[in-house]
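Purpose: get a first structural picture of the assembly so the mutagenesis plan has something to point at.
Setup: two entries, given in the order below. No constraints added.
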Amino acid sequence: GDSVTQMEGPVTLSEEAFLTINCTYTATGYPSLFWYVQYPGEGLQLLLKATKADDKGSNKGFEATYRKETTSFHLEKGSVQVSDSAVYFCALSGGATNKLIFGTGTLLAVQP
Amino acid sequence: DVKVTQSSRYLVKRTGEKVFLECVQDMDHENMFWYRQDPGLGLRLIYFSYDVKMKEKGDIPEGYSVSREKKERFSLILESASTNQTSMYLCASSYTTYPYEQYFGPGTRLTVT
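Result (structure tokens, whole complex):
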């Protein structure tokens, strides 16, 4: 069945460092891909999305490109801030069920 | 902006109590979902609904039931709360059209003692 694999955390970075969180997927057909962010004690917020191959989703300085040839959707940010500390979830949708398949989440901790 | 609200942010209940968690969305979404989130286990789908009075089991429905009498409201019911149901509960909603992105509420942290 469809699945999402994302890198284990926690990822600890210093402020202004470059961020990459890896996400790969397995899916039949052509899924849409998402990154969600969860700040401490909050629900998940949609961060960005891409709906077809080579699409680049972007928001708040974060970017991810839908790579069909490598089945990947890695999240990147050029310069992280302490306020980016959160858990990041990669997810995909597709098929007839309207459900999302989530990765296990990656905790990012940014130190000043 | 889509708004999904949950009735409580924090809830403490005793073992054996009947517990109701309420979720309301204001975007006329057809789909609504209940998840629980536990450390190390990620998000797990409990139940979802794609229309009023319709429901389908998710991955972990045991010990839970749901009710959807109106399109905007989806309730999760713990018939007899147990300590292993202590968790963060998240509600979400979405349209039935592609790409099916879901919008989440702030969550309810339930503690069963």
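Chain A touches chain B through 20 residues (CB under 8 Å).
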